Amino acid sequence: MTLDEIQREIDRISWGARYAKVKNSAGREHFIVLKSLSLADRNWVNFIYEQALEEGRELGLLKESDLLSAYNEAGIWTNAQENRLNQLKTDIEKLEKGLSDEEQGSLGRRKIEGLLRGARRAHQALSQERFEKLSASLERFAEDRKLYAILWCSAHKMDGTKVWPSWEEFEEESDIDFVNAMLRALLSYKPANVKEIRKMARSPLWRYKWNGAKNCDDLFGKPVVELDPEQESLVYWSQVYDAAYEAYERPPDHVIEDDDALDKWFEEQNKKRKAEDVKSGKSKDKLRVSERVGRHGEIFIVANKDINPEAPEAEEIWELNPDGTKKFIKQQMRTIKESKTINERNLRADYTSRMMSGSKRAEFEVRGGKKKVNKLYDY
Question: What residues are paired with 245 via a beta bridge?
């Protein structure tokens, strides 16, 4: 996004509305304003949805779950397809998480990005098929009615008055082409995605407005409960960047400007706080190692819930490692990932592994068949 694009998006989100041009059945053009829903509007939309559910039940429409069961028996939409759709969603979430762990431009990142594109395409195609086949469900009937309620609340003339002054007038509208054109204008809108919102939230074009609003308690000219989703998102991410900018150990600008890098920075800060709480004793319920056990260079802790239902989580055990050991383990994992075959001696050379795990190097001698430590050296 250019600075000009950022400014336009900030203006649009701050206004909470947008312009559209539609045609009626006679081909006449109309300029309209599509406003975000107020609190009263949202309650009306929910009311219409509930009314539609009741009406749909009286008409004998099947719930989506019942329709899915019937479709599975008929082979129209099977459980295998439903499971595949759910699995794709899970795969996408895992890939997105894995993407944040890879460095920009790395081979691993490019590989994950390719897999992610393929999974998203497959998920979109399967979702569209499911959507079309479930168009006769009770929930879809109610969703359609809800969409008309949103249109009635949102559509305004240029003078600020509603296109249809009352719900009754909207239901009696005879120009179906005009209504459909309005619906297309409503549905064609693509709100700013998280990446774009984050770029706006850290932009100087927004920051001075955001910081100024803190002193006058008036950001969008309406109460917090009236904020639309984009405004809420912009406020949320503005608060997130406040935490980064005002941190005692503020991250560098290049980290703040990189979404993945900043997310990782927050994760690391959170882990540090948890580790400090464990060390200081503030976290009474967290895993700790006794002083006697802690003297050892390497400690193995079982995290198998099948053996012990109260076993600690792997994340808790991981946080007991010093920062140097964490870096060493991560390096090992990268070596394993990048190598097709590897000799364990090369993966974990004795000197390096003991140095990183905080152990000591010892000189031994054997006297009378017994091993004795002559001297210990710190690494």
Answer: none
User: Domain ranges in the chain?
Assistant: 19-187
Q: Please state, in angstroms and as integers, the Cα–Cα distance from residue 16 to each residue in 13, 55, 152, 233, 250, following that order.
A: 5, 33, 16, 13, 33
Please answer whether residues 300 and 344 qualify as being in contact, where contact means their C-beta atoms are separated by less than 8 angstroms. Answer: no
Cα distance between residue 18 and residue 9, in whole Å: 11
Whole-angstrom CA distances from 7 to 13, 88, 218 are 10, 36, 19
Mean pLDDT of 327-334: 77
> What's the pLDDT band for 268 if we cut at 50, 70, 90?
confident
pLDDT at 110: 84
User: What is the b/e burial string over 206-238, where b = at least 16 CB atoms within 10 angstroms of the residue's CB?
Assistant: bbeebeeeeeeeebbeeeeebbbebbebbbebb
Distance CA 36, CA 200 (A): 20
Q: Residue 280 CB: number of other CB atoms within 10 A? A: 8
3-state secondary structure of 19: strand
CB neighbours of residue 22 within 10 Å: 22
> What's the pTM value of the predicted model, to 2 decimals?
0.66
Residue 296 DSSP class: S
What is the C-alpha separation between 43 and 232, in angstroms, rounded? 18
pLDDT in tens, 13-59: 999 999 999 999 999 999 999 999 999 999 999 999 999 999 999 99
* Each residue's pLDDT tens digit, 73-126: 999 999 999 999 999 999 998 888 887 777 777 888 888 889 999 999 999 999
Helical packing angle, 229-245 and 204-216, nearest 10°: 90
Cα 101 from chain centre: 15
How many CB atoms within 10 Å of residue 121? 11
